[in-house]
Specification:
The structure holds 2 protein chains of 2 kinds.
Chain A lengths: L1 H27 L18 E8 L1 H13 L4 H10 L2 E8 L8 H10 L5 E8 L8 E8 L6 E10 L2 E8 L7 H4 L8 H8 L2 E2 L1
Helix pairs in contact in A: 2-3
Chain B lengths: L2 H21 L1 H14 L7 H8 L7 E9 L13 H9 L3 E8 L6 E8 L4 E8 L4 E8 L1 H9 L1 H9 L9
Antiparallel strand pairs in B: 1-5, 2-3, 3-4, 4-5
Helix pairs in contact in B: 5-6
The chains are: A alpha+beta, B alpha+beta.
């Protein structure tokens, strides 16, 4: 009986392990974050906003920008045409300290894989303020184009995560800044006078 | 006013209103699904309110449809897994989730869906609070979509606070 079990295990186990081995890099290269990990904060929040722009809704955005013929939108339109999704989750609290560093870490943990690289880290100069902006990009397998981008914005009474799926880099973020739920980083930085690395 | 003038006015009103009713069939189906889930009928005269309010819509916004369900328990109807999937069932497959605004402490939530129309987009907005459920459908031309695309978070919050008509220029 035992040799027969070993044969079965060998027959199914090896291909299964191979399949798992092939699947792991694909999983590791998934630029879509699991934002549901932040759901536990919803009960403490004054307001929770989820924005989903993918598939059809992204096509609407593209079409409206085409018909709008606004020159300022031209760069954003070129970027959006290549994207597959923009996801924003934003929590607004009526008082400070409603979320912990561990809550922020739940998202950071997903960005700690070797595929993600932190491109921007802006922290407030003021002490006792946990204001920070972080921008991460996921490099493609050939290193030529990125697969996605993530933005983490933490303020004393607000926590926002933006996840952009598709070929985009940190430089493109300026074109989308202040549009489609993506925070306006330029104004934020001017307002705060932050530290940048 | 003569009898024939009355007849002409009546016919004119009827002809003007007929395409609206045909286009609103989809909205009525959505309203029926909410009514079926909560075993409540919408408040009367909302069709008339929608019709009267149409000329006062902001630029690029048209085709207002409004239904108000008063005294609705905002709990998830039996047999539904969660609000997101329940609302998607209510909206139907043609509508795509766009913005969702929830209050963490109060049973208040707003779901906003987009539907592709030929030269415009249909926006379906369902707001539920402790006692009422309001279903609104409007057609947005690209110029009206601009505000939503520029700032979907702000627009969603504004709508939740009842400012979706008043804060637009």
């Amino acid at each position: 009986m035992k040799p027969r079990f070993e044969n079965i295990a060998r027959s199914f186990g090896v291909p299964a392990l191979m399949a798992l081995g092939l699947a792991l890099p694909a999983w590791a290269q998934n630029p879509k974050l699991d934002l549901n990990q932040l759901e536990k904060l919803a009960s403490k929040a004054d307001e929770v906003v989820d924005v989903t722009l993918d598939g059809a809704t992204l096509k609407f955005a593209e079409r409206f920008m085409e018909s709008d013929k606004d020159e300022d939108d031209a760069e954003a339109l070129n970027i959006i045409r290549k994207l597959t999704g923009i996801y924003v989750k934003s929590f607004e609290f009526d008082k400070q300290d409603q979320y912990s560093d561990a809550d922020v870490e739940a998202i950071r943990a997903q960005l700690k894989s070797s595929s993600w690289t932190r491109m921007v880290n802006v922290t407030s100069r003021r002490e006792h303020d946990k204001e920070l902006d972080e921008v991460y990009v996921m490099a493609g397998p050939n290193g030529k184009s990125n697969l996605g981008l993530a933005v983490l914005v933490a303020e004393p009474k607000e926590l926002t995560v933006v996840n952009i799926v598709g070929p985009i880099d940190a430089d493109h973020l300026a074109a989308l800044s202040g549009e489609m739920g993506v925070p306006d980083f330029e104004h934020r930085h001017e307002r705060r006078g932050g530290k940048h690395d | 006013m003569t009898k024939s003038t009355f007849l002409m006015l009546g016919l004119g009103t009827l002809l003007a209103a007929t395409p609206t009713f045909a286009g609103d069939r989809e909205f009525h189906e959505i309203v029926d699904r909410v009514a079926g889930a909560y075993h409540k009928r919408p408040m009367r005269m909302m069709g008339l309110v929608s019709f009267v309010a149409r000329p006062f819509m902001p630029p690029g916004v048209s085709g207002l449809n409004l239904a108000v369900f008063a005294g609705v328990n905002p709990a998830l109807p039996a047999g539904s897994r969660d609000f997101a999937s329940f609302m998607q069932d209510v909206a139907g497959p043609g509508y795509h989730p766009f913005v969702r605004v929830r209050s963490g402490r109060e049973p208040e939530q707003t779901y906003i869906y987009l539907h592709d129309a030929k030269d415009a987009s249909d926006l379906l907005i369902v707001t539920m609070d402790a006692s009422d459920t309001v279903v609104v459908k409007v057609r947005l031309k690209p110029e009206a979509m601009r505000d939503w695309m520029d700032d979907p978070i702000g627009q969603g919050r504004s709508h939740r606070n009842g400012g979706w008509l008043s804060d637009r220029n």
